[in-house]
Amino acid sequence: MYDGIIFDMDGTIWDSRETIVKAWNDELKAQGIDRVITVSELTGYMGLTMDAIAEGIFPDKKYSETKHIFDKMYERENEYLRKKGAILYPDVISTLKELKKKGYRLFIVSNCQSGYIEAFLEYYKINDYIEDIECFGNNDLPKWDNIALIIKRNNLKNPVYVGDIDNDRIAAGKAGADFIYAEYGFGDVKKYDDIIYRFGDLLRIGEEK
């Protein structure tokens, strides 16, 4: 049995693209920047670090040149998510509650900005179910380092990371965690330790560990 389940956010727990696009475009307009981001475009950036996303959206500029713009975009994004939430995948809350009852310790690691995970926890009022979180926005570290931080900080011996893209699989492996592929998310992953087709499938896996 796993002693800790570490979750990715986007494509695993929820789909926040519509809310993000609305927030970003509102902020770009407020700053007088003639740039419109679509959901389709954003999908290609899901799971990337903040600097990689910025350089994808403004390819002719370095992140250091656009960071002040993105700081405001992320600030507005967090505000919208705290107020409106996003599209939660089916049975997420009930599954988290049941996993907690079963004795699993639950965590979140994402490549997002500071405040993003907190907005999710605040909107759905589930702070009590998630023991610890970490993200790129807190420390500029890649996902595998942040997974490793969670593992070390919480003395996990047999952790698993749940994500939806191949970079999640790679990060889990580098951090010394098993990987469960959320097939319903944004990616197409060929190698994994286990697979779920909906979030609730987590209730039936990993018992042999």
From TrEMBL:
One of its GO terms (biological process) is DNA repair. Transmembrane segments: none annotated. Pfam families: HAD_2. It comes from the Bacteria. Gene3D superfamilies: HAD superfamily/HAD-like, Putative phosphatase, domain 2. GO terms for molecular function: phosphoglycolate phosphatase activity. The keyword Hydrolase applies. Keywords: Hydrolase. The keyword Hydrolase applies. This is HAD hydrolase, family IA, variant 1.
